[in-house]
Design goal:
alpha/beta, Deoxyhypusine Synthase, 3-stranded antiparallel beta sheet, globular
Length: 344
């Protein structure tokens, strides 16, 4: 009796033995459920990093600094795995707390939060930080804002200058690595973080620095236009994810103005690590397949979503890359497309 074509790809059960993390992830891609999806994400990333035509956009949401993930993100930038970072303000400020020499502390969600308030301790689920240490980070940003010439900046311009400022102070944060590697850092909701607090503190002292979000997005679109092909890595969702998605939409609209009909330039590769789900209708849980209908991701490109906490997925993926990717990926230094507008 002829076997059904549905029965052609055999599942391969995992055998326990000494092996590299990358080998384990590839084996997981031949199992089931979210283990398979994590393995598929890793295999797609290997394809991405081997493709010299691709510009890699990383969207970074959630609370990765207090979660102990910021050095993983910094390593990905240092090693050339990220060409453009689009981040929440929190993820490129809260890492600075530890980079300054302070600490986050393992805590518990089962605690009297009023007692923490009285002791000036802030809680991120099961992580604690001293409010005074957090204020020191905000004051460092405010100190930087006071040194910036008054004017209108995009967030990659502003954060490029901040990266240089931190490098000179010996503070090795995500934006410091981005400055050194020439990676532009966009933060389309920058004020929703310690940066907003610091900017208001400086503003009340008479120092006014304006961040222009339209200029911000225009610069991001220009980078995408100059990129032959693109890949999107989404850690979480929210504003960073949709901003990277919309880059593809804007390119199609601009092409129509030039007389090109039905022009699409979606992301060739897309992977996302999320704990959200699609049935609530929000962008954070929206599938990469849904994005095809908008022209955001390619119907023919490689894509995979794994529903798992990023604090599980990111360390595994990064350690696998460290083991298996011998040749460092050339850095595109795309910040140089923006520096002429900065005038520096």
């Amino acid at each position: 009796m002829e076997r059904s074509p549905y029965l052609k790809d055999k599942l391969e059960s995992i055998e326990v033995r000494p092996r590299k993390v990358g080998e384990l992830l590839r084996q997981m891609s031949r199992t089931a459920y979210q283990g398979r999806k994590l393995g598929e994400v890793y295999e797609i990333l290997l394809r991405v990093f081997e493709d010299p035509k691709v510009t890699v956009f990383m969207g970074l949401a959630g609370s990765m600094g207090p979660g102990g993930m910021w050095k993983v993100v910094r390593w990905l930038i240092d090693e050339g795995f990220v060409d453009v970072l689009v981040s929440t303000g929190a993820n490129v400020s809260e890492d600075i707390v530890e980079a300054m020499g302070f600490s986050y502390y393992r805590g518990s969600p089962c605690v009297d939060d009023y007692e923490l308030l009285k002791q000036k301790i802030d809680r991120f689920y099961d992580v604690y930080v001293s409010e005074l240490d957090y204020r020191a980070m905000e004051n460092l940003i405010a100190e930087f804002v006071r040194t910036v010439p008054e004017g209108i900046y995009s967030t990659p311009e502003f954060l490029y200058l901040f990266g240089r400022y931190l490098k000179n102070k010996g503070v090795k944060s995500i934006v410091t690595s981005a400055y050194e590697s020439g990676v532009p850092v966009f933060s389309p909701a920058l004020v929703d973080s310690g940066y907003g607090v610091a900017a208001v503190l400086a503003l009340r002292e008479g120092k006014r620095v304006v961040v222009d979000m339209v200029k911000d997005f225009d610069q991001l679109v220009k980078i995408a236009e100059k990129s032959e092909e693109s890949a999107a890595i989404y850690v979480g969702g929210g504003v960073p994810k949709d901003t990277i998605n919309l880059v593809a939409v804007v390119q199609a609209l601009l092409a129509e103005r030039r007389g090109l009909r039905d022009y699409y330039k979606p992301h060739k590769y897309a992977v996302q690590i999320t704990t959200d789900l699609p049935q609530w209708g929000g962008l954070s849980g929206a599938t990469l397949e849904e994005a095809v209908s908008w022209g955001k991701t390619s119907p023919w490109g490689l894509k995979a979503t794994v529903h798992v906490d990023a604090t599980i997925a990111l360390p595994l993926i990064a350690h696998a890359l460290a083991e298996e990717v011998v040749t460092r990926r050339p850095k595109k230094r795309l910040i140089e497309l923006i520096l002429p507008e900065l005038g520096r």
